[in-house]
Amino acid sequence: MKIYQATIEDLEGVSVLFNKYRLFYQQTSDLEGALTYIKERLDNMDSVIFVVKNDRGYAGFTQLYPTFSSVSMKRAWILNDLYVDEAARKQGIGEMLLQKAKDFAVETGAKSISLETASDNITAQRLYEKNGYKKQSQIFHYELDLTGK
Predict the structure, then answer these.
(1) In angstroms, rounded to a whole number, what is the distance separating the alpha carbons of residues 25 and 20?
(2) Is 48 contained in some domain?
(3) Is residue 148 in a domain?
(4) What is the CATH number of the domain that holds 56?
(5) Using CA atoms, how far apart are residues 11 and 6, in angstroms rounded to an integer?
(6) Is the Cβ–Cβ distance between 52 and 96 less than 8 Å?
(7) Which residues of the chain have pLDDT under 50?
(8) Measuring CA to CA, which residue among 103, 14, 79, 81 is closest to residue 52?
(9) Which ranges of the sequence are coiled-coil (predicted)?
(10) Which phi-psi region, left, alpha or beta, contains residue 45 (left: φ > 0; alpha: ψ -120 to 50)?
(11) 136 inside domain
(12) DSSP code string of 60-120
């Protein structure tokens, strides 16, 4: 298996995984939209995507978005997406992606990596906790929906 930062050459493979990731979260399949979205992220360099390839092709990805902590006056990263193709699960790919994200965050001088997952996604919660992520019970997450939905 090979893990590396995705480039525009990985657009199609990452977009297929991204579409599957969105399907996992009960979104409508939209491969064309996924291609457009991932291309924009790569072209604008406003996210960092790491991808794992195995002998079958694209097996998993994670996408990080930059942010900053005003209190600590340091960079931080939001691990927004992590997905491993069903056929490639139980091979340590999720852990590889988390470690790559951690190494990258350290290299960029970040204070932290934050993420969120669905409350019923127990498998992901176990993976994150096994890799040192702590559930933040003292912080409330708020969101203002601007789509009107």
Answers:
(1) 9
(2) yes
(3) no
(4) 3.40.630.30
(5) 8
(6) yes
(7) none
(8) 14
(9) none
(10) left
(11) no
(12) EEEEEEEEEETTTTEEEEEEEEEEE-GGGTTSSHHHHHHHHHHHHHHHTT-S-EE----TT
Instruction: Give the Cα separation of 101 and 78 in Å (integer).
Output: 10
> Residue 74 has what pLDDT?
94
Number of domains in the chain: 1
Residue with tokens 């490639």: 88
Range of the domain at 126: 2-130
Give residue-wise pLDDT tens across range 26-60. Answer: 999 999 999 999 999 999 999 999 999 999 999 99
Residue 146 lies in a domain: no
Backbone angles phi, psi at 129, to 5 degrees: -65, -35
Whole-angstrom Cα distance, residue 23 to residue 20? 5
Pairwise CA distance, residues 58 & 51, whole Å: 7
